[in-house]
Each structure stands twice: as C-alpha cells, then as structure tokens.
Amino acid sequence: MRKSLVVSALLLSSMAILSSMAAAMAATNKTVLDVDGNKLQTKTNYYVLPVIRGRGGRLALGLRNKTCPFFVVQENFEVSNGIPLKFLPTDSNMKVVHLSVDMNIVFSSATICVQSTAWRVGDIDGLTGKRYVKTAGVTGNPGLGTVSNWFKIERYRDDYKLVFCPGVCMFCKVVCGDLGVFFEDGKRWLGLSDVPLAVMFKKA
C-alpha cells in the first residue's frame, strides 16, 4: 500500500513538473526575441531591421509630398542608422512584448511637424490606392477612436513581421494586413501589403 502511494506521489510530482515546463515553453514561444536572443522589452528603444540583406535598412521617418505628417519608411541603405522606437502594449503593466498583442509603436524622435511620432495606418491614398503607415497617431485609449493606431508582431516563417489587425474594438470592421514596403519616388514606404517585410529587432 505504501509503495503504491509513493509511486502515485512520484507520478503526480512528475506530471506537475512536466506541466510547468510546458507552460514555460508556451510562454517563451509567445515572447518576441531580439537579435541577441533576449526578450523584447516594452517602453525600451529598439531598431527594426530587415531580415534579408541588401534590400534596404532600418525603419525611419520620411516626408511624403513635403507635407506633414511624417510617414514610416525603410532606409535605402543598410549602413543608415534609422530611428529607434518603442513598443507600448494595451496593458501598460506588461514588461515584455508578446506575439499577437495590440500595441502602439512610437519613434523616439522629435520632428519639425511638432506631432506625435506614434504610428497609425492612413486611409486609402487617392493616387496609389494603397494604405501607408504614417505618424501623428494616438497612444493608449484603445477603442473606436484609436483603432488605426494599433499594431501587432506575428511570426513569419522563422522570423517576425509587423501586422495591422487591431482587436481593440470588437464591433469595428477592420481591414487587416501585413506591413510591407512599396518602392516609390526613390523611397521605401511602409504600408499594408500582400508581401510582408520580415523584420528583426536590435536594442538601441
């Protein structure tokens, strides 16, 4: 009888350990990692880099038609510094960035436009028919009035991609899309695209 109790206790203990390990692995798989294998921290500056070499550099700001607000662009050259940015999830208490979580993305830079550098998805452009990512967005206050300001990081093969598919407004009709690059007028503009830009994150 005692032997049976010992065996049962060992089995329960093993099951608890395995369950704990599985939960830890699941949590790790949902956590976004930077190029050094460290967990991506919220409210911390990072550069966003393309995974594929030779197709542009880091993300930065660029004026379109010489008018405000600034748009999000990919630098044409890998050697360009780019501009660091921060990830701000809907849950302000979250310490690390997880996959599929709504968040604001904000450049850590002031501009001549004297506007917020938070990202937002613009309306359909009348000339190109595309939707570009621009600044002058709003941080926080998830809901109907800020639905265009929320982005997510998702897995893309063995890498990551940036996605616009906000879940902050349950009754809003949103056209989701991956963020890719359009090469126009000598610049690489970030916008909703069928071809996502595979990215990685480097701590500034």
From TrEMBL:
Keywords from the UniProt entry: Signal
Signal peptide coordinates: 1-26
Gene3D superfamilies: 2.80.10.50
Source organism, top-level taxon: Eukaryota
Any Pfam family matching the protein: Kunitz_legume
SMART domains (UniProt xref): STI (SM00452)
Entry annotated with the keyword Signal: yes
MF-aspect GO terms: endopeptidase inhibitor activity
Protein name as annotated: Proteinase inhibitor I3
Biological classification of the source: Eukaryota, Viridiplantae, Streptophyta, Embryophyta, Tracheophyta
